[in-house]
Design goal:
This protein has eleven helices and ten strands. It is of the alpha/beta class and about 290 residues long. The chain folds into two domains: about 170 residues, P-loop containing nucleotide triphosphate hydrolases (Rossmann fold, 3-Layer(aba) Sandwich), CATH 3.40.50.300; about 80 residues, no CATH class. The longest helix has 19 residues.
Length: about 290
């Protein structure tokens, strides 16, 4: 081991400025893995709405089993990027989206869902007048693709499929600790429980990859703790790949394997959470601290 910051190869003193520059360059480098080799990713993706560029030439690649958080100020393009990944938006010409190595750029969102891509929504796309079980079963039907005749007659295979679907839904509800609320109408439930129902709907698709759009937004400290605990179990015990938009940097740095920082539609940093949050450029953009 060399002393005094010397380079062990030639004995010269290390240059702190050069080391800082190299570290910054690493944070602003390319994707962690090529998009087509990851479980989900995109290449050269832009999305414009008239004169507004919401996503600007973004390339990301995420490995199977990772927990990646996407952060940045409001209007940075985070939700639009998720909308492109799950098929709600098509990217502008030249952009490509990959799911498990397959080019799914032109594939609609329901077909991506059947290939194992789940999604929660910041705005909670729930059926307010229905109960918890019906909300989850409705999404499960997308995965099941029931035969029309069987569904109408409800005999034989149709009844068996319905029973199996109900059993699976109730297992999800139990896993997310929603059992006592299973017959409660969504409109009567507090925000923390409704966010868990939204998560349950996504799990009803049996996803391998889960896109989470501010799943903890508006939650109390205890509700946020419960959500982190449940997501950690899904990640560690069920092996789900998680891609999460989140503003709480304390949560992000505790749970994420990697962090991606966006500003004005582009990626300005990516890497281990501690390294990213310590970066002066990220601090300037995300927190306003020079």
């Amino acid at each position: 081991m060399s002393a005094g910051g010397a380079d062990p190869a030639d004995g010269t003193a290390a240059d702190p400025a050069a080391e800082t520059e190299a570290a910054a360059a690493a944070l602003r480098g390319g994707p962690h893995v090529p998009p087509e080799e990851g479980v989900i990713g995109c290449r050269d993706v832009s999305k414009t709405f008239g004169a507004v560029t919401a996503v600007d030439d973004v390339t990301v690649g995420i490995e199977r089993g990772e927990w990646v958080s996407i952060v940045g100020p409001n209007g940075a393009g985070k939700t639009t990027l998720l909308n492109v990944l799950n098929g709600f938006y098509e990217p502008d010409s030249g952009g490509e989206v990959y799911l498990k190595g397959e080019d799914v750029t032109t594939l609609p969102e329901h077909r991506r869902a059947r290939r194992g891509l789940g999604r929660t929504f910041q705005g909670l796309e729930l059926f307010e007048s229905e109960d918890v079980i019906e909300n989850v079963k409705t999404v499960r039907a997308v995965h099941e693709r029931p035969n029309l005749f069987e569904a109408l007659v409800y005999l034989g295979p149709g009844a068996a499929k319905e029973a199996e679907s109900t059993r699976h839904v109730e297992e999800i509800i139990d896993y997310l600790e929603l059992w006592e609320y299973r017959h409660a109408r969504i409109a009567s439930l507090p925000l923390g429980i409704r966010r868990r129902v939204d998560l349950a709907r996504s799990l009803a698709l049996d996803p391998d990859v889960l896109l989470l759009d501010e799943a903890m937004s508006g939650l109390t400290f205890d509700e946020k703790y419960d959500m982190v605990r449940l997501l950690t179990d899904l990640h560690e015990q069920e092996g789900l790949t998680l891609v999460m938009i989140e503003h709480d940097l304390e949560v992000v740095t505790e749970v994420s394997d990697r962090m991606i920082v966006m500003q004005e539609g582009g990626v300005i940093a990516r890497g281990p959470p501690r390294a990213v949050t310590d970066d002066p450029e990220v601090a300037r953009v995300y927190t306003g601290v020079e």
